[in-house]
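Honest question from a wet-lab person: if I give you the sequences of every part of a complex, can you actually get the arrangement of the whole thing, not just the pieces? Trying it with mine:
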Amino acid sequence: MSFEWGTIVKTINWTLVFNLVNFAILLLLLRWLLFKPALRYLDKRREAIHEHMEAARRSEEQAAELQRERERALTAARDEIRKMIDESRLEGERILAEAKQAARHEAARVAEDALQEIEQQRETALAELREAYAGVAVMGAARVLDREINQDDHQRFLDELLSELDEEMLRTRTP
Amino acid sequence: MFEQLAPLLDHLGEKRMAILHLGGYSIRFDVEAILMSWIAMAVLVVLALVLRRGFRQRVDEKPTRTQAMLDSLIGFIEGQLLGNFSSQSLARQMFPFIATLFLYVLVCNWMSVIPYLSSPTQDLNVTLGLALMVYVVSQVLAVRSKGGRKYLKGFLEPMAFLLPITLVGEISKPLSHAFRLFGNVLAGTILVTVVMVKFAPVLVPSGLNLVFGLGFGAIQAFVFAILAVAYIDVAVG
Amino acid sequence: MLQEVQSAVGISGADIVLAAKYVAAGLCMGIGAIGPAIGEGMAASHALDGMARQPEMRSALMSTMVLGQAITETTGIYSLLIAIVLLFVV
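Yes, you can. This is the full assembly:
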């Protein structure tokens, strides 16, 4: 091996080939050390990102589905509630009507009872009055006649008077 | 003080060649370029080993610093490839090749900034080798995707009598590809050296290194990789 | 006659070749840089127009612009190469 001086451009020499060999070795080394793993790594990461995005999309879809579901349920519940309200309003009206009816009946019954009672009271009062009249009349008569009459006469007389009074009272008092 | 730097200029246009005598053949090569290329390889392998730790982590955990670095680097290259290749499977298939090309050229370009190191890419052999390799790869892929007949017919388009021009165009592809990188890097080196030797040995070369070494180095590496992508894409598509 | 002048002033043929090399390299670089400069400027200006109109396309325009400028620069690189060959090789 010896040396000599050459100029820059004049010679195309074996440096070209040796450098290409160097480059080939470097290419193989770097491919083995760096680029193969790098590409694999980038692929893996891209896949992971893609997967994440896919998952996000899926969960978004699920959320949308859930939202729809909820809205549907909400609508159904609202309908249900409206129906129930309607039903209960009808029920209430029915109950109210029934109660009114019952109250009306009751009132009528009470009024009738009261009338009956009044009637009865009046009967009693009339009877009492009649008796009082009779007593007063008999006493008056006894005083006028001023004589003693026996028991039978007395009773008969009273009965006659009562019946006359009755008729007279009934004629004058009954509406 | 400038006199001490003068040898730099004397040997600016020259290269020290090693001659290996192997049974009658004498194999000439540039020791410096090969050495620098090894350094670039070592840097990249160490970088790969460091970045590799980013894979240890599970996908859904919070990214570490290494992982963020890895992400931004791989993501940048992948984004460019997906944007410039017309087919996604081809982009995936060519990812290690183009990424290695880009990183290798980038590190090589940046090496000229460091003292005692020089860019391998300022040697025409290196860039021409890479460009020819890209060209061969593109043609092989074209034959594989189109089939031999259709591939050969492609040279007769748009018109058969334009074949010489098409051929010249085809030949100029790897040549311009190689010369672009070589010329840019070499021009940067020459400019920095000349300024350093003849004009100002401190401070100014640093700024120039920043622009020509790091800035243009990155742009040229990017352009080299993107042009490789474009050539392969055109040849296959 | 030329020989006499040359020997009288102390200029050899090699000196003339050297001078021609430098002049040619300078002209080559200077003239060769005009075209790419104009082309790259136009590319950058139109890319800027596009970016101003659609800022969201910035990254795509940027990479395409750099690619286009690199291709435009090819002719400039060729002239640079010729200059380097003239300076260091010929």
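Two things worth pointing out. Helices of chain A lie at 15-145, 151-173. Chain A has one domain: 15-173.
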